[in-house]
């Protein structure tokens, strides 16, 4: 272990418990319009609470327009309607989260930490004019069948002239009985694709966006659901061809969804993006680039001036986390062992066994070495962590700042 690196971190990192710590981060964000807040797992309480605190300050002090998260559009749009009071008789928030986030891993958004943030967003919006209300949107693409159902529902209520066209397009998917895996097998191996149908429908919907008084963002939701349907079809059709292709389809979709939301909110719009480090940290600063993988962080940086984009990564040395043993398994609290000796997390721990952060823009040259950056997914087995839970990373090229939690704790699912 490099003693000089630990000493350097000890000298320049800022303890999170310092009263001015959050001020330093908010000030370093400056005039950025795209602020990407990462996480080293999808099941760590501190990542959610710190991102929530930063998001509140960015909304209050810098006028950010909406939060875009690694979640399904239909589920998150129900939350968006709740915090903007589009529903005349909304359900209790806890009930809404449980009902909206049923797709595994439901704990990512149906948890007590999100309950607090969404309650705050509702209270904040209640004091704002309609145009200044802050949004909450999902930018992921897994909701193929849910998005198609939302399109049908919307057209039934608002545009019956286009309803038959949509039903005709989606009839191609009926044999698969809302099973994405069945469609993936059929499209990938048997070439029984519904691509043409959903692309035609997407182009038609994009050509005509409508607004309605009781749901001023309904036309936006219709368009984003159509975008999800088109890209999800492509994603599932490509699953048999390998992880790199599907990864790139997904991250290109999420970046495009962000840009559509920014365009909808106008030239002064600002977005806070909540996603895993592997999505918001620039892929070019990791071994992902060698495998031909891109991500949201890279795409956003490539599309905008450097001062417009800010990426904040997270790491943890040890603790507990919520995850599953396998895809679809019930979640459980899992112990996270001490980080690998050759990781960035081990360096920060050696510098001081406390929560801290460093503004990497100011120390770029010192953090250019390649070391592992811990990455825990929704499936996690700590016994095999050394085989795939560290992303070789040039830290100062991947993020603009890095928050280190020495001992983290599991998220609290509802």
Commentary on this structure:
This protein starts with a helix and ends in a 6-residue tail after the last strand. It is globular, with a radius of gyration of 21 Å. The strands form 2 sheets. Strands 1, 2, 3, 4, 5, 6, 7, 8 and 11 form a 9-stranded mixed sheet that branches. It has a two-stranded antiparallel ribbon with strand order 9-10. The protein folds into 2 domains: 3-64 and 270-408, EreA/ChaN-like  fold (3-Layer(aba) Sandwich), CATH 3.40.1660; 144-249, Up-down Bundle (de novo design (two linked rop proteins)), CATH 1.20.1440. The model has no long low-confidence stretch (mean pLDDT 92). It contains 16 helices and 11 strands. The chain is of the alpha/beta class and 414 residues long.
Keywords:
about 425 residues; alpha/beta; EreA/ChaN-like  fold; de novo design (two linked rop proteins); 2 domains; nine-stranded mixed beta sheet; two-stranded antiparallel sheet; 16 helices; globular; methyltransferase; methyltransferase activity; Protein-L-isoaspartate O-methyltransferase; Emycin_Estase
């Amino acid at each position: 272990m490099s003693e000089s690196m630990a000493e350097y971190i000890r000298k320049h990192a800022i303890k999170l418990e310092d009263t001015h710590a959050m001020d330093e981060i908010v000030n370093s964000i400056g005039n950025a319009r795209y602020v990407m807040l990462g996480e080293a797992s999808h099941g760590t309480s501190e990542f959610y609470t710190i991102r929530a605190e930063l998001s509140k300050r960015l909304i209050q002090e810098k006028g950010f327009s909406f939060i875009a998260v690694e979640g399904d559009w239909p589920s998150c749009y129900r939350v968006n309607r709740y915090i903007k009071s589009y529903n005349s008789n909304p359900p209790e928030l806890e009930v809404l989260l449980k009902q909206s986030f049923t797709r595994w891993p439901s704990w990512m958004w149906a948890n007590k930490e999100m309950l607090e943030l969404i309650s705050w967003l509702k209270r904040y919006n209640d004091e704002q004019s309609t145009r200044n209300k802050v949004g909450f949107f999902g930018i992921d693409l897994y909701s193929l069948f849910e998005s198609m159902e939302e399109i049908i529902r919307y057209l039934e209520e608002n545009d019956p002239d286009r309803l038959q066209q949509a039903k005709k397009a989606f009839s191609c998917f009926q044999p698969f009985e809302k099973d994405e895996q069945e469609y993936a097998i059929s499209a990938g191996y048997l070439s029984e694709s519904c691509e043409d149908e959903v692309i035609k429908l997407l182009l038609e919907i994009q050509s005509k966006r409508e607004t309605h008084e009781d749901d001023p963002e309904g036309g936006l939701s219709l368009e984003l659901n159509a975008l999800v349907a088109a890209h999800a079809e492509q994603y599932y059709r490509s699953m048999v061809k390998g992880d790199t292709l599907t990864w790139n389809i997904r991250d290109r979709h999420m970046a495009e969804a962000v840009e559509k939301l920014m365009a909808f909110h106008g030239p002064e719009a600002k977005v806070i993006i909540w996603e895993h480090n592997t999505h918001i940290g620039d892929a070019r600063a990791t071994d992902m680039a060698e495998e031909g993988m891109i991500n949201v962080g890279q795409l956003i940086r490539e599309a905008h001036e450097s001062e417009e984009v800010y990426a904040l990564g997270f790491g943890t040395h040890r603790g507990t986390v919520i995850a599953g043993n396998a895809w679809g398994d019930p979640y459980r609290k899992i112990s996270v062992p001490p980080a690998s000796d050759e990781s960035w997390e081990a360096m920060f721990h050696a510098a001081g066994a406390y929560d801290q952060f460093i503004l990497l823009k100011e120390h770029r040259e010192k953090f250019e070495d390649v070391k592992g950056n811990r990455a825990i997914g929704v499936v996690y087995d700590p016994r095999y962590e050394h085989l795939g839970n560290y992303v070789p990373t040039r830290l100062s090229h991947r993020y603009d700042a890095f928050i280190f939690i020495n001992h983290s704790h599991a998220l609290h699912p509802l």
